[in-house]
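USER:
Try writing one entry.

ASSISTANT:
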Amino acid sequence: MSYANQSQTLNIINLNITGQQYQGLLERVLFSTLIGMPCCVFLFINGTMLFTLRSKLVFRETSRYILLYNLLFADTAQLAFGQLLYIFAAGRIRLTYPVCGVLVMLTKLTNDISPLTLVVMSLERYVAVCFPLRHATIATIRNTAVAIIVVWAISLLNVFTRILLLLNFPFEDLESLQIKDVCSDIQMLLDPITDHYDKAYTYCLFVSATVAIISSYIGVMIAARSASADKASAHKARNTLLLHLVQLGLSLLSTMHTSIVQSLSTIMQRLAIVRIKSVFYVFIYILPRCLTSLIYGLRDQTIRPILLYHLCCRLTLSCPSRG
């Protein structure tokens, strides 16, 4: 082959590579824009909902609204940390193990708080229906605060355990502390022990939460059949518990989506995996984090007018008198 032909062939190869790189860059920008815009919208809605739950005295002194605030705060924080990790991944920014570890642990912390808070909210609804005369003495602000502290303590204990397992890894043997791939929770599973612990804790957490919510639902159903029960209150509590169960399922799905993508990566090409992961991120990770605001904000007759008032920037709706 002549020198001219060789040069022409190399130029064609370089053009193909450049074209593929440009296409990949354009696709990353497109996906980042399509994902970033709804995420910003949902963060705004969640932030408005959080502000709404602190805007009236009735929300600050009612057990279920305090628990809802804790659940929404955890979902919003997880959505923010998840979006930050997605930006790093889309920009192919490689972090160091300490920085990535901090972000992953914060994501794990907020992810654990959601199902535990759903359990406490379900128990509160169970007490409200099955023990209506004792509800006011059981679901006090003090007891609610203690329950929230316990939820955070359990989640923090899990994070500290994971940190201790990570410290056993011989980081000094690595050539560099910079991660070779994008930062994710998979990168923090540095040894089989950490992986086994993560799976065992996740299974135990969600099985326990499912049993607690289903038991609360059965208790409410039994109480609703009694002659002295408030049928309207029991029906509303039953629907709320079903909603909690759906939220728990979505939370479990979002926790397992990384494992699903990891399994698919063994049989599919990298580009296809990137596209699938982006779609999963929107429908499995982002949407469940905003459902709390949308469902509770529109479903609750006390929250809805105030939430719409704040969302519309106080321009078109009138707000009830503040407490």
User: Anything to note?
Assistant: Residues 2-17, 315-323 have pLDDT under 50 and may be disordered. The CA atoms of residues 93 and 182 lie 7 Å apart.
